[in-house]
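Here's a chain:
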Amino acid sequence: MRDFGVSRSTVRESLKILAASGVVELHHNRGAVIRSLSPDDARDLLQVLEVLSGLGARLAAEKIQDGNNRQRFEAASHPLIQADIPDDFDLILNQRARYYQVMFDIAGNKELNRAMPLPRVHLFRTQFYAFLTKSDIKAMIGEYRGISDAILAGEPSKAETRMRRHILKTAERTLPCYRPTGSD
């Protein structure tokens, strides 16, 4: 409250919103705890992301020639698909976040944006991307090149297929490595 200059009721309402989106768990008389996704939660989330991200890529490919969409997408995709693999994966993951933001902006579907479970996506990223290796990141960058090529070529079906395949590969890379807290 002090750090952000907000009231106790604002913090309470914010925590309720985060709890409703599945990011935190509220415990009476103990406070709020950031939620851990189970492997089943993550699998369910990735199934939804496969469909929604695939649709986003399809729509972006359909609208790539409109206005300055091509330039915007090239500006967002270039740093990601031309990246060297740094020791700091956060750099790649931040470029990836911008990539998706611009792709969904170009897709221009308000309902798609409303349906995207972004708070849980960030929770997944925080929890599961720690399992990625440099070779995983290199493979992801190659997948983003293929998706980008299809979007820039205005090939909706190919863009959707490549994006969906990328999300499936993300599941293959992350889920087998995950152990819930407390298991060894």
